Amino acid sequence: MNLILAYLTDPAHWQGSGGIPARVLEHLIYTLVTLLVAAAIGVPLGLWVGHTGRGRWAVVNLVNGMRSVPTLGLLFVAVLVLGPRIRGDLAFVVPSILVLVVLAVPPILAGAYAGVDAVDPLARDAAKAMGMSSREVLFGVELPCALPLLFGGLRSAALQVVATATIAAAVSVGGLGRLLIDGQAVRDYGQMAAGAVLVAALALAVDLVFALVQRVAISPGLVPARRRPIDRKNPTPANPVA
Amino acid sequence: MKLIRIAAAGVLAALALAGCAGNPMASSGAGASGESIVVGSANFPESELLADIYAEALKAKGVAVTTKLNIASRETYVPALKSGEINLIPEYTGNFAKYLNKDADVADEAKALAALRAALPDTLVALEPAKAQDKDAVVVTAATASKYSLTSIADLAPVAGQLVLGGPPEWPTRANGVPGLASVYGVTFKEFKPLDVAGPLSVQALKNDQVQATNLFTTDPSIKANGFVVLDDPKNLFGAQNVIPVITKAKASDTVKGALNAVSAKLDTDTLAGLVTKVVVDKKDASAVASEWLKAQGLA
Amino acid sequence: MTWFLDHLAQVGGLLVTHAYLAVVPLVVGLALAVPLGWLATRFPRLYTPLITASGLLYTIPSLALFVLMPLVLGLGILNPLNVIVALTLYTVALLVRTVADGLSSVPEQVRQAATAMGIGPVRRFVTVELPLAVPVIAAGLRVAAVSNVSIVSVAALIGIAQLGSLFTDGFARDFLDPIVVGIVACIVLALILDLAIVALARAVTPWLRGGRAG
């Protein structure tokens, strides 16, 4: 405990390109870019599968399969294969973000798919009966109704990415993982523990932001339905940290 | 932290109840009793190769051996060596002496060896060093060398302010890392970029101009392969770095000493570099390269 | 492929260690999560603090936990127990919530029926509530198993040999073969554990096998 405080209260650790604010900012940027890319892939795909009911089997298995890919191994492959093909400082950053995207897509995809899948068939039928087109049903009814579970997927992806982005420091990338890897290299427990605490705090802060956005974005009519019983076959994706 | 501490204590208690304390993986602790020697290594291929060579040489003499390779940096494995979790590790005279005593004089081979032996704790003993040396080096690309006309580290002094230095994450605190470059040569880089221990990240980052200078080892085959330029070290910052087995004194029986000293006697720098090339470039297994070489030398 | 065939024994050995490091925490974690989950459902006031604490544990990066464990436990840095304890923490963190949710998914009527049949609270928990919660718990266990397999590989960065060692070895030599073999072996192991949990859950819930297969 004292080690952490000593590290965190040393003004030298708050300055410059290796300082805590800079590391937090890097960490946030990696997380944000990862989530944007992962959402751009996972949300449309999940909505489409949920809406059409096509490829359901493939999605469930793909999601579970991707979860079992060990992040560290994938990171090393990505850096060895892609690194030499990318110029400048992005050579290590791009492969790292790619690996984080692989990690973030499954929960987002599962959330979007489960959200649409869980929409009350009555609501869907009512919308169709009102003469809505398939597209209108998707965007006017299914998507808003899917938001709670979709956000659940995004939040669990965000937690996972914030915690796992630390691994990227093993391939020279910045972010709070540097405190862990550099701390380990010189056996500086204060630095490592401070890094762990900062990552946990950042994860909580990011989760809080999501919670606030969720509160604003989701129709109040849907809120009581949030605590629906868990679907036995597709439980809300929990978040494995790597 | 408190949460972890409480939770961890609870889990440990549960594990003890479940009888998992006697798990098969804890068998490495058996090294503490009897003849078995636990050989460790640092986290770079040459260290693993040397650990394999020691292990195979000892096995050939009938000594029971287990290996715990790729542990991490010196900062991590030295405590493990002192506590007896590992008993034997391949080391480098100068760097290990400097690690134990940052004021150690390691300018030449005899001084480095004497400094190491003086600085070692009582429980450890450094056996005979090999002729083979593998030094840290500051390496630049041929293009960078000609652009700033660099041949020695000293030439970096006027231009280092515009350049980024790469190296292992422990370099900023190592006496003969970043601080040594500043104090001995007055070379201070614009920035330090933590890479890996003279591995593919360092090579890639240098090729890619993410860093303009980086720490590599003098036995590294990628220096020649990429036409990198090793900057001279006229003030001997990196000192003498003979490969040397360091072992727990209680484990250093005559058989053990004999086997390890015989290895040192046959190992020179070119041999070592050749063996490393087989592992890193030809992608052969370190253990296979180790036994092949030992057999050829009549040591196994 | 040739690399794999030439190193069958080595990969096999690492696979066994890897499985051991992933499965022991799974079993111990489950054993700890059941009483904690029961507490969370039995005493609703405990639900929020328990779930929050386990959620917090989950945000700690695995590398940090591995490296800090020796300090917390007072064990040697190369002791695999450090990894086992760290993974058990993650498993518990993941399963407490699942167990609690599983237990609260047991219909109140069933509980009352059991009580009416004169079954005491302990026996009711073991013979009625827990079995009915198995499907939900098994779903959580599957996630934990798969995530454990992935996290164990990170321990290669602290010198604990398992399949992750193939990653660090391959990376240090700029050599893809061992890394790819390691990844595939991890996926296979995760798949085996996943199937084993599904089979086990099916075996202990014979009443679900009728019309609801698949």
From TrEMBL, chain B:
PROSITE patterns, alphabetized: PROKAR_LIPOPROTEIN
Signal peptide stretch: 1-26
UniProt cross-references to Pfam families, sorted A to Z: OpuAC
GO molecular function: transmembrane transporter activity
Gene Ontology CC annotation, any one: ATP-binding cassette (ABC) transporter complex
InterPro entries associated with the record: ABC_Gly_betaine_transp_sub-bd
ABC-type glycine betaine transport system substrate-binding domain segment(s): 36-295
Transmembrane segments: none
Keyword annotations: Signal
Keyword set includes Protein biosynthesis: no
Name of the protein in its database record: ABC transporter substrate-binding protein
Automatic annotation (TrEMBL), chain C:
GO process terms (BP): glycine betaine transport; transmembrane transport
Membrane association type: Multi-pass membrane protein
Subcellular location: Cell membrane; Membrane
First-listed, main subcellular location of the protein, grouped into a coarse class: membrane
Transmembrane segments: 20-43, 55-77, 83-104, 151-172, 179-201
PROSITE patterns cross-referenced by the UniProt entry: ABC_TM1
UniProt keyword annotation of Transmembrane present: yes
GO-annotated cellular components: plasma membrane
Record keywords, A-Z: Membrane, Transmembrane, Transmembrane helix, Transport
Top-level taxonomic group: Bacteria
Pfam families reported for this sequence: BPD_transp_1
Residue ranges constituting the ABC transmembrane type-1 domain according to the UniProt record: 15-199
UniProt family annotation: Belongs to the binding-protein-dependent transport system permease family.
Protein name: ABC transporter permease
